Amino acid sequence: MTPSSGPSRPLLNRRLAEFGTTIFAEMSALAVRTGAINLGQGFPDTDGPEEVREAAVRALRDGRGNQYPPGPGVPELRTAIAAHQLRNYGLSYDPDREVLVTAGATEAIAASLLALVEPGDEVIALEPYYDSYAASIALAGGTRVPVTLRPREGRFVLDLDELRDAVTPRTRLLLLNTPHNPTGTVLSREELAEIAKLAVERDLLVVTDEVYEHQVFTDENGTTPAHIPLATFPGMRERTVTIGSAGKTFSFTGWKVGWVTSTPELVTAVRSAKQYLTFVASGPFQYAIAEALALPESYFTSVREDLRAKRDLLSAGLTAAGFEVYRPQGTYFITTDIRPLGDSRSHGGDGFAFCRALPERAGVVAIPNAVFYDHREEGAPFVRFAFCKRTEVLADAVDRLKAL
Ligand SMILES: *Cc1c(COP(=O)(O)O)cnc(C)c1O
Fold first, then answer.
1. Full DSSP string of 19-81
2. What rounded mean pLDDT belongs to the chain?
3. What sequence ranges are listed for the domain Aminotransferase class I/classII large (predicted)?
4. What is the pLDDT of residues 215-235, one digit of tens each?
5. pLDDT score for 23
């Protein structure tokens, strides 16, 4: 018996017990305490386009979206999402039956898994994985089966044989992410074609997280490794739930406007879960994002070019500081290997110890990629830096990293 009168049973249920605290909270607190530059958490330090902010203000003033919007999302936004998928990818979706607006991509992921996964079903996810995947699979009672991306020739690569071997009769769903956070890998047409073939062969559902679809960079030779939605491959539209987010595309992460495009049956299933999570969210912001999605191509190009310059600035700085840099093809994250810094400076290649010491040593905060792995040892030497920050902030970080 303890003298305290609080409940004696562990409070957090078994499904969530392993997700008690996140590294982001610890590292962001460390950044505040030490005055370090926070390249840990991936949010932009400038807001998206002024005219989109104004559109939100206008919607709010005009009383559009201040009360519960329709469950599937406001028609203006659903129409704009469908037009965006058609214009960019030639994918045609019916705004009324095949588009669902969610409270960010996070809710789209959670609702998809809660709707489609039976307890005991296996869900294959690329490792390292975005942190909400593991928790959402757990909430749905699924078993996560990670397939590890490994560095090869400067890029983190998916081993297609390993993916094939990971599929069992209990596999229900592939949870993909391209462009991939945290490695910056953009799956190629060939890789996606193989994944599509496998999904059709083994009758799998696929949930693809494509929130970085507009953050794909031009290569040295001037070619852009285009983002290709998995839903464009033969047999895939029928079994794929595609997820997008205005937070990443337009730099309004606080607005929490995300969406799902899929078949009427899959959208209805996801909506069944979604309606009991938030029911609806972000009313006035939905109208603003409808306008954002219709911005001219030049907007998307300029965002991409701006980010590419930032990627190159931080990549060069990290390389000069002694890191091995996996230059990302997409997203706004750079994954590095700390081992080339040497045994003592890299804390024996232990990314956790390295990131805990980095604010004091160099005044910069980064995230140890190990938190994105089940196989922690696989991720141990990798550390992630975000470059969605103002150029002068990145230049300052690069300067500070010279202290290493
Ligand atoms: C940021 C992020 C999300 C979450 O997006 P929200 O729209 O903010 O909920 C989902 N997936 C990946 C890979 C992300 O990086």
1. GS--HHHHHHHHHHHHT-EE-SS---SS-S-HHHHHHHHHHHHTTSSSS---TT--HHHHHHH
2. 95
3. 36-400
4. 999 776 666 668 999 999 999
5. 84
Residue 269 has pLDDT above 80, yes or no: yes
Residue 289: DSSP 8-state: H
Contact residues for 124 (Cβ-Cβ < 8 A; gap 6+): 144, 145, 146, 147, 163, 166, 167, 171, 173, 174, 175
Q: What is the pLDDT of residues 315-345, one digit of tens each?
A: 999 999 999 999 999 999 999 999 999 999 9
Measuring CA to CA, which residue among 110, 161, 147 is closest to residue 131?
110
74 Cβ partners below 8 Å, 6+ apart?
A: 64, 65, 101, 283, 286, 287, 290
How many Å lie between the centroid of ligand 1 and the Cα of residue 224? Answer: 23
Ligand 1 pocket: which of 106, 367, 372 to mutate (most atoms <8 Å of CB)?
106
| Position in ligand 1 atom list of the atom nearest CA 258 | 7
A 10 A CB-CB count for 209 gives: 30
Predicted confidence at residue 237, as pLDDT, reads 97
Rounded Cα gap, residues 349 and 346, in angstroms: 5
The answer to whether 381 and 349 are in contact (CB under 8 A) is yes
Q: Could you tell me the two tokens for 344? A: 């003592």
Find the DSSP H helices in 140-213: 160-166, 189-201
Cα four-point dihedral sign 382, 388, 389, 392? positive
